[in-house]
Queue: 2 jobs
Job 1
Amino acid sequence: MATTLKGQPLDRPTLDTLCRRRLFYTPSFEIYGGISGFFDYGPPGCALQANIIDIWRKHFVLEEDMLEVDCTILTPHDVLKTSGHVDKFADWMCKDPKTGEIFRADHLVEEVIEARLKGDKEARLGEKKGAEGGVQETAKDVEENTSKEEKKRKKKVKNIMAVKLPDELVKEYESVLAKIDNYDGDELGDLIKKYDIRNPATGGELNPPLAFNLMFQTSIGPTGGVAGYLRPETAQGQFLNFSKLYEYNNLRMPFASASIGKSFRNEISPRQGLLRVREFLMAEIEHFVDPEDKAHPRFSEVFNVKLSFLPKGVQQSGSTEVIEKTIGEAVKEGMVDNETLGYFLARIQLFLLRIGIDKNKIRFRQHMNNEMAHYASDCWDAELFNSYGWIECVGCADRSAYDLSVHSKVTGQELIVRETLAEPVKKDEWEVDIEKKIFGPKFKKDAKIVEEALLALNQAQREAAAKTLQTEGVLGVSLPDGRSVEVDVTTVNITLRSKIINVREFTPNVIEPSFGIGRILYTLIEHSFWFRPEDVNRGVLSFPPSVAPTKVLLVPLSSNAQFTPIVNALSAKIRKVGISNKIDASSASIGKRYSRNDELGTPFGITVDFQTVKDGSVTLRERDGTRQVRGSQEEVVEVLRKLVEGEIGWEGTGLKEFVGQAVDDE
Amino acid sequence: MATTLKGQPLDRPTLDTLCRRRLFYTPSFEIYGGISGFFDYGPPGCALQANIIDIWRKHFVLEEDMLEVDCTILTPHDVLKTSGHVDKFADWMCKDPKTGEIFRADHLVEEVIEARLKGDKEARLGEKKGAEGGVQETAKDVEENTSKEEKKRKKKVKNIMAVKLPDELVKEYESVLAKIDNYDGDELGDLIKKYDIRNPATGGELNPPLAFNLMFQTSIGPTGGVAGYLRPETAQGQFLNFSKLYEYNNLRMPFASASIGKSFRNEISPRQGLLRVREFLMAEIEHFVDPEDKAHPRFSEVFNVKLSFLPKGVQQSGSTEVIEKTIGEAVKEGMVDNETLGYFLARIQLFLLRIGIDKNKIRFRQHMNNEMAHYASDCWDAELFNSYGWIECVGCADRSAYDLSVHSKVTGQELIVRETLAEPVKKDEWEVDIEKKIFGPKFKKDAKIVEEALLALNQAQREAAAKTLQTEGVLGVSLPDGRSVEVDVTTVNITLRSKIINVREFTPNVIEPSFGIGRILYTLIEHSFWFRPEDVNRGVLSFPPSVAPTKVLLVPLSSNAQFTPIVNALSAKIRKVGISNKIDASSASIGKRYSRNDELGTPFGITVDFQTVKDGSVTLRERDGTRQVRGSQEEVVEVLRKLVEGEIGWEGTGLKEFVGQAVDDE
């Protein structure tokens, strides 16, 4: 169950209402009825996002001298065809042929099975009111979406009854849920048939799952001839610029590029608020590394960082029990593939902690083999726990040489690193020599593919083929189209030759940490939220000062005109030391203004009262414990600077504690 | 003619080559052949952009407590239908029916006429080599685009011959060029016919201009039922959130929202590098103000700021002579419509100067009446002069109540301000009373439109109608569909009544300063560029420290291992005071490394040499004059901080001048 910062049960609708009231975020185009999957950030959300990005940039880009680039969102078809997105960036959808409704297949299976398991649990508890309980839970569900589909979904969930299931089936269902991210379309279709999963609203049967490409398509230029997409990730722009970046980096390896920008997914039916949106901010790193040396020079700095791992073996067994160990051990014993990947996993956790994510709500889940792209050698998601469950917020994959290789192959441009060897190396290699004058006329129009098939043989195959040619005089060659032909010694020779190698050429491998900023931001809001026990309606967002949208609120005691110049001058003074502040000179009571402030997550408040007019002193208040100290404006500004920069904590202010409320002594 | 920072003739291809070599920007998807109108920013361009944005945010958002929002790029059809973009956001294109080529009509007319005028000038100068001169100019043209259209364009320009034109025609041509932005499709069609403008490559006749909508269209969701566009500006998201922002601002007026983000225009045939791209970063402010009081509380602060104005009257007369005066005078005499608009014009200039734009290359051009949207009450562009001519980089329009009114009308949502009046006001108003019981049966299905027509009468019309009803007993009412009906006193009464008004309701007007960041960035690069007289090949980008991508380069004298720990520690020290720095430990000579640095626009350099190993002192160098001083690392870091923050100039370092080169004394 999701809890607040203080371990209280977290009621999502309450928090959601707070966030919308304070304009952290709001559904886009709401006066037009809205479209699910789109949110705008208001002033505090926008500032929170900017601060998270600022820390991200310092933590990764500046700390490691990464090469930040800003590439276009619009991407032509050919690039995304090569990357595989045109063919494979899809979810499975099922259509109800009668109503025309469309369901995302895996989500539907998940929801229906979860509901059935819930019904089973209630039946087992012997609770008569099980069904009504389900309804209550549904009614409490956050009102995030008023679309037709959403209403139908709610109706559907209401239909679930408390029915006890056979023990065997419960086990099956649990195993399906543990592997729900790993089924392809056929498998989802089989599950839907096997478990008789139907349109929950109507009971109608569904068509088999079809792939739906998640990219938004458009057309570039006036002729309509150039198809383009909104990028689904920022990575491709970085890959396409590899050679330029490598040169910019003075041909030094390894190095990383980084990019922060919007990406897009045309989700089938987005729910889950900020967690599943059609337009989102990503921050991605592409760390280019020698495939034969994935050690990381700074790995020792993170060796002892402890992470919670959920490796693939554990998941395969149907369990979700995490294993705690240091990243050093995890790499040593091979659970995490290599040092560079491990280095980033640790750095990801350090970043998450730095912005205020709850350490106990982070786990690193390894992709299972069938979930991982075929070329990836290892992949881990940093999952954060919030009221929606464990949610992937950062991915970190070793993508091998895949991306650079495919783009290079299609474009004919080299995307490689040339490394001059310290000492030349002698190397024996089997080489294929073709007697073109005889070979060409013999194979005619097939000559090219036969030659390609021969050149595609690796060293071991060439050695075997040389032997065959030597002993038999002829060699059978299989062609890609299934035919096979024979070559003989008059046309082909395979010979072992010694070569001196001075330069080593290789396609770098890529380690890719990829951050969903919106998901992290939303989870941070949940992890920072709590309410004062004396007043459950008074929500507080305890952001660390570094990410808080506003660092300090200036509160004149009343609307008395004497306060105005003092407050304005103080605001300018605080801004001068680089600290964002806001003045709240509204007529609301001090308490109400501070409460508004709690909801905005502003860590400090300064009150200007009649004592200030007399002696210049002001009160400084901290949000979490509502404790106050008093000092001169100069003292308070300096203390504030130290607090915001993390040099001191509240205990270190050195100022006199101030008890009681400032009083308007007019 | 465009000039460098030092008044040298600016050769654009040289600068462009520098920018690409140093990866300020690079054509997107270049390994796939590229698509015109798309550029990626490499590390220095990305940092330059971030610094410009950072200053923009401080100069506008923080300084005036604006409400920054981050709204979605994808925008549904209905929103942009209301805003007018679906119907009117278009350029005129002409198709050559034989070749299928598409030309942007106004650009074609402009180019052909400019070429003819050039031919005329050459003929008049009696220069025999006129035609070849044209070719040379073309060959020098920046190689920004290798598309087919571009090649054809070049071919076309070559065809222009030195032909003397009648004096009268030259005048006509000049007048057409002065008004080229103001022609609609029919007028462009007339010009094309009148001046016999054809496909310059083939001489083929063109079809009449057709409107081409410049928005990229896509489809949202799996059903294909929801049409959407990539936003052409960030403004609409701000308008749609008006009521939420007004409430967030505690119902105080005036206030401004602001937004920084990508926008898109599907340009017909983009050339001109970063100036005309299909995807670009905008920064926009929507300042909401009382239509009856457009005074600005801080106008006095900018009253004496001098601007160069090009008002519409001057343009209409065919001249481009600017008028210099203070914004205070310009508003006083009514040249600029109101104080708020004037305040922003001055603030825009102050911003441009702050980032390093050349004061002599800024002018404010007023929109002419036929160029301005019908609802706008005044509009000025800040135009910057660069090698492409005078280019609109910031627009600043008073958009009246247009946007809020149209969205309110379509959605039925109120987008208004309610102001409690200090004293209630008595107001006499003519009210229309309808006797529904008789009215309804009488007009049947027309009842509603007749009623609407009556209620649409303004106060003066109502007074007249009341008189007619009183004297004639009947009143003719014109319906929107052209019919007219009669009402009489049994169904309608129009009466003057006194009302007490406590609350004033109004739709705010909007003043909209809108910045094209890419255009400003490119122009800033041109304005910062120069070359050392002793070496024309050694380009320098003299960015002010605040916008420079990197503030200081750390240069160890050689690759001697003794320097490494010193340089690394110094880098960390400098980073700690918040100053971005890079280490260049490559094996290139000091001179070569500093020259690379000049091209990247890094204002300062620190050399670590053998003297440093002995006594810790380092050399600090400034880019523009290559002067050097020497001091302890502590002294130099402190001086550096003051230089970067603008507290001191180079004369104020107080450190000992250092003459001659650091020498490796090993």
Job 2
Amino acid sequence: MRWLRYSLEGKTRYGMLDENDRITAVDGCPFQGYETTSTRLRLEDVKIEVPVVPPTFYCVGLNYTKHISTEGMSIPKKPDVGYRANNALIAHGEDVIMPADATRVHYEGELVVVIGKKVRNISVAEVKDCILGYTIGNDVSERNWQASDRTFWRAKNADTFKPMGPWISTEADVPSMQTVVSVNGTESTRFETADMLFGVEEFISTMSRYLTLYPGDIVWMGTDGHSPNLQPGDQVDVTLTGLGTLSNRFVKEGLT
Amino acid sequence: MRWLRYSLEGKTRYGMLDENDRITAVDGCPFQGYETTSTRLRLEDVKIEVPVVPPTFYCVGLNYTKHISTEGMSIPKKPDVGYRANNALIAHGEDVIMPADATRVHYEGELVVVIGKKVRNISVAEVKDCILGYTIGNDVSERNWQASDRTFWRAKNADTFKPMGPWISTEADVPSMQTVVSVNGTESTRFETADMLFGVEEFISTMSRYLTLYPGDIVWMGTDGHSPNLQPGDQVDVTLTGLGTLSNRFVKEGLT
């Protein structure tokens, strides 16, 4: 099934999205409990929102070998997770605003894992039970700032640099998924989740040895391949097998 | 004035703390609006909670020269902010649990700025208007993991590694504050906020050029000096001029 977070008439709530793109609104949320309502809506009549605003926003860097070699990094020997910031999140369909002084902006299409249960110190085999579902992320990056700054604060966490969505799918066959990124409708990058250095279960089990994962936490799983330098007006679509397509237009600050 | 976040009989709320440590409970919170209630409580009768769980948890690394040279780092040329994770937050009086395999755990006493208003692209002079107040943080760090890992995920963000509190003071004379850290009642480190490389206004103004700050966001301002290797049973008190004292005991995982 699919969980959609949407807004209508100024109110944001969750709904279940059926195969005909009809929404059944719920009271509550998939993390703390919900009840279905009698409200039925059509997907095209609502605004899609970021599927969850996480308590903690985890992001795996350097998890595919082609991307690592392209960016000139060395291959990690163990799964050390990183972080991103909530200010940067935007929804499917919203614009990525490239700051006026940003000159080398790249996409990074990623699988996103959404945590559904509070867990600590779980085995690899137990990880699947704590996952609510999966969505798509675009880990937008400004490569000059990534090289010049001591942290990723603006290279990866400038406002609007973290598109996520369009919804959470509770099922995914992670080992056999393809990620396809298109720019203005033309395929630009394609890779297999099977090529991850450290898989979802290994990462989350390792993290849980030292930290508690909470309902709504998200883990972005890294990217493969290389992006062209994006230009104002470009539309980037990230499609993952079974999860739909996350689409965002890139525009220049001050020119929107 | 002082804002306290506390719990009593299973309910967590905010209150205003007067100079006699009496609490006036409020409905709502200092960030989205509040009304005072007729409930009066004594500080010693409630459990002190983390003063705010931030939407984004910023932390300035390497912002005092003595600490930078001690840790063998080079002095930053510009204010690049970093991040910490909400899972690691604990309140005044709660225990820092040192993982079983943690061998070199240090304290880092820090001034914490609490954002009160949504702002973007503000000048140095405008920063004071977006600050709700100040509290104290202890940026607990495991130095071996800090050296061996690619990120700070367990070195600085293991559960319980981010004590913060005890409350938010809306007034502070930042340029003339002293930070004193004591271990088991004996002074161990003392430094001046005046020795910051980049001050509160410069950091927040710079950040706001690329990102929106939201009510409840926190910015930890870095530390000076050096910590001894903490041992199970140690009590660490961090005192900042006018902000009170943040006290936490350090215990070993499995031995609590």
